[in-house]
């Protein structure tokens, strides 16, 4: 076997040994007893190493918005790899990140004119938090150091991200994290909003929680608030109607920057390029990753307003304005993948898909109401969540059982977080895929006691 045949074989067959790879966010010992291994993918489907076709209900991990193995993206990566494999972007450059930043600016909410490249959502979040702190300092308000996140928030796994994040298991093992962080209350309220279609009707008043924190800490100490417009990782938590707009107003009143973490909502998930546009609320900074390259090459991007960017552009021209960046910021392969991804989204009008199909999706997911143990259903755009009742004394176990049953018995990939089954399919899906996803999910839920 030639070395490349050998690699192709290794990439598609179950590995002989599974011990050395310490898997992320995984119950390693449990997984390695019954692995779930994907060998290839095309369009709406994965193929597992045991040869089954698995319907992708989660766009990989909320990233493959254009589906899998899209020809333009594949070709762009291949061609870029032979043209320029790597070039630094510290005091050097290559053309593609400049081209890409202009393309991104064109689809971003108005005023978010500048783009800082990272390699992941976590790095985007830490970058945005650092920009927020340095921005206030650059304009003589360096005492604004406090960062505000929200309960149930997920902002990746950097120390900044877990500090402003609000998922207990992601925080409790890692010491004191960043000092000077506080949290808004979360907006999940099943008692009042259970089985609601679209945005929750109740809960706009939760935005006033920011006023409570301003009263406690004083606005002059607060740099920024970071929230996900819709949070995915905590089990799809939606913003109540009017909530984000109110948060924006309170931030404006107190000179606090508003950061939207759009790592999952960016690039068409909710019917516009960004949730900010769908909700008509423009933040000062947006963090992205995932759908930026359709998941094909790791890349993230932070969008910053002209006001923020320009605050740094003072002092001697030879001075570095922001002491921050990554070796792979604007990596050629990632830029090529992102440009081809944007072309694919545009050619196929994929950003509109979540609006076109949103009603059908909503009807299909809400038809699961009444199945055993279903205690809530939430949806917006092409996002969905089915929450199952927790088993007595074993929270998360019913969700996990359903997740693995879906994979092994129904050839359906969903995501489970606690007892919530979350869905975020590629935006190329058709009505027949929606039918198939929910038929299989219904069978899974019925079979999961
Ligand atoms: C809202 C949000 N922010 C940040 C991240 C972290 O992204 P990454 O895993 O690329 O670091 C995620 C990942 O799911 C996310 O959902």
Word description of this protein:
- The protein has 449 residues and is an alpha/beta fold.
- It folds into 2 domains: 3-66 and 351-447, Aspartate Aminotransferase, domain 1 (Alpha-Beta Complex); 74-347, Aspartate Aminotransferase, domain 2 (3-Layer(aba) Sandwich), CATH 3.40.640.10.
- Helices cover 39% and strands 15% of the residues.
- The chain has 18 helices and 15 strands.
- It has helices at residues 3-12, 28-33, 59-62, 71-83, 95-107, 121-138, 159-164, 168-171, 190-193, 209-217, 243-254, 275-279, 306-312, 332-347, 350-356, 358-366, 397-410, 431-447; strands at 38-42, 45-48, 53-56, 114-118, 146-150, 181-184, 222-227, 257-261, 285-288, 300-304, 374-380, 383-388, 412-413, 415-417, 420-423.
- It has a 7-stranded mixed β-sheet, with helices on both faces. It has a 4-stranded mixed β-sheet with strand order 1-2-3-13. It has a 4-stranded antiparallel β-sheet with strand order 11-12-15-14, covered by helices on one side.
- A hairpin with a 4-residue loop joins strand 2 (45-48) and strand 3 (53-56).
- Helix 4 (71-83) packs antiparallel against helix 14.
- The chain is globular.
- The model has no long low-confidence stretch (mean pLDDT 97).
- It binds pyridoxal-5'-phosphate (PLP).
- Residues 120-122, 125, 154-156, 228, 232-233, 261, 263-264, 289 line the site of pyridoxal-5'-phosphate.
How is the secondary structure organized here?
Elements: H1 3-12, H2 28-33, E1 38-42, E2 45-48, E3 53-56, H3 59-62, H4 71-83, H5 95-107, E4 114-118, H6 121-138, E5 146-150, H7 159-164, H8 168-171, E6 181-184, H9 190-193, H10 209-217, E7 222-227, H11 243-254, E8 257-261, H12 275-279, E9 285-288, E10 300-304, H13 306-312, H14 332-347, H15 350-356, H16 358-366, E11 374-380, E12 383-388, H17 397-410, E13 412-413, E14 415-417, E15 420-423, H18 431-447
Parallel strand pairs: 3-13, 5-6, 5-7, 7-8, 8-9
Antiparallel strand pairs: 1-2, 2-3, 4-10, 9-10, 11-12, 12-15, 14-15
The structure holds pyridoxal-5'-phosphate.
The site of pyridoxal-5'-phosphate has 14 residues, from helix 6.
């Amino acid at each position: 076997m030639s070395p490349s045949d050998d690699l192709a074989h290794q990439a598609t067959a179950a590995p002989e040994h599974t011990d050395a790879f310490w898997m992320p966010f995984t119950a390693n010992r449990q997984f390695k007893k019954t692995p779930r291994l994907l060998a290839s993918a095309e369009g709406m489907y994965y193929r597992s190493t045991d040869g089954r076709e698995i319907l992708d209900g989660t766009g990989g991990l909320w990233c493959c918005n254009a589906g899998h193995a899209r020809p333009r993206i594949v070709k762009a990566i291949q061609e870029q790899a032979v043209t320029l494999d790597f070039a630094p972007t510290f005091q050097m450059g290559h053309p593609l990140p400049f081209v890409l930043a202009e393309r991104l600016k064109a689809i971003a909410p108005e005023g978010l004119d500048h783009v800082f490249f990272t390699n992941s959502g976590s790095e985007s979040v830490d970058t945005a938090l650092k920009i927020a702190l340095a921005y206030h300092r650059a304009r003589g308000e360096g005492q604004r150091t406090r960062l505000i996140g929200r309960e149930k928030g997920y902002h990746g796994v950097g120390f900044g991200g877990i500090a402003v994040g609000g998922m207990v298991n992601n925080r409790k093992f890692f010491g004191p994290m960043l000092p000077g962080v506080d949290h808004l209350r979360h907006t999940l309220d099943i008692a009042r909003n259970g089985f609601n279609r679209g945005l929750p009707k109740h809960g706009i008043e939760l935005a006033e929680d920011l006023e409570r924190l301003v009263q406690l800490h004083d606005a002059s100490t607060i740099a920024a608030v970071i929230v996900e417009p819709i949070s995915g990782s905590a089990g799809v938590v939606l913003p109540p109607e009017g909530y984000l707009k109110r948060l924006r107003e309170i931030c404006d009143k107190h000179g606090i920057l508003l950061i939207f973490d759009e790592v999952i909502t960016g690039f068409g998930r909710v019917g516009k390029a960004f949730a900010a546009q769908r909700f008509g609320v423009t933040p000062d900074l947006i963090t992205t990753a995932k759908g930026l390259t359709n998941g094909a090459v790791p890349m993230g991007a932070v969008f910053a307003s002209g006001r923020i960017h320009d605050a740094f552009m003072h002092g001697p021209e030879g001075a570095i304005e922001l002491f921050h960046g990554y070796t792979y910021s604007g990596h050629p392969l990632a830029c090529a993948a992102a440009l081809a991804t944007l072309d694919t989204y545009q050619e196929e009008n994929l950003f509109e898909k979540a609006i076109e199909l949103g009603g059908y999706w909503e009807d299909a997911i809400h038809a699961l109401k009444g199945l055993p143990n279903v205690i809530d259903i939430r949806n917006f755009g092409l996002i969905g969540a089915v929450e199952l009742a927790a088993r007595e004394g074993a929270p998360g176990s019913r969700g996990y059982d359903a997740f693995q049953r879906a994979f092994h018995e129904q050839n359906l990939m969903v995501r489970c977080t606690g007892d919530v089954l979350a869905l975020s399919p590629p935006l190329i899906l058709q009505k027949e895929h929606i039918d198939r996803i929910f038929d299989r999910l219904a069978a899974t839920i019925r079979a999961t006691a």
